[in-house]
User: What shape does this take?
Amino acid sequence: MKNANELLIKRTKKFARDIDKVKSIIPDNLFVYNPLKYAGDMHLQFIERYAIKNTKVLFLGMNPGPFGMTQNGIPFGEVSFVRDYFKFDGIIKQPKKQLPSRPIQGLACPRSEVSGLRFWSLMQEHYGSADKLVGEIYVSNYCPLVFLEKTNRAKNITPDKLSKENRDIITELCDTYLWDAVDIIQPEYLVGIGKYAEKKLKNDKYPYSSILHPSPASPLANKGWGERATAQLKVLKIW
Assistant: This one.
């Protein structure tokens, strides 16, 4: 019998191909990156290490940040943590098409992914080394695609801001992958990183809840996110 990580790697490869087709229906004013394709090697390394059956907590985000998973394929992938904490060093290809204002620089990206820095700093503080995360947490994003305005500012457009027609197609693919992944890993708890993710985790089989999203766009997150998230996880009796 295959291990959970082997099953999820196979399922993720199919998901990467399926979700990539969505790019053809996205409006012309948006640019779409799919890190499961060009940074798939890094993402599959993360699955291989952390997709363990009966892992205690599966954390779910919304979609990749432009300076995190977009650059390196790791959920909430703050470059310093990917390189120095996880010590991942996989292949990150150059997409055939790139937005000039948001080039894919991989582990050489000089920008910090603030949400990822806050999230992984807290995980490191609580659990310790990256090896000690095994069996404790797995992290994923509901939608692996990144939607950016085709402007110099390259504003990040979250999936909930897309048209209903586009959202419906994406939702069908992402829902199916999410619950396939959950049933492969069979975690004890599901925790949405933010309310959007919590809504996607609603079910009758697994206990679910959420913590405050660490985004700097959130006033509350800028006032001691780590302490607030820790308190929430303690109330949930996860920590």
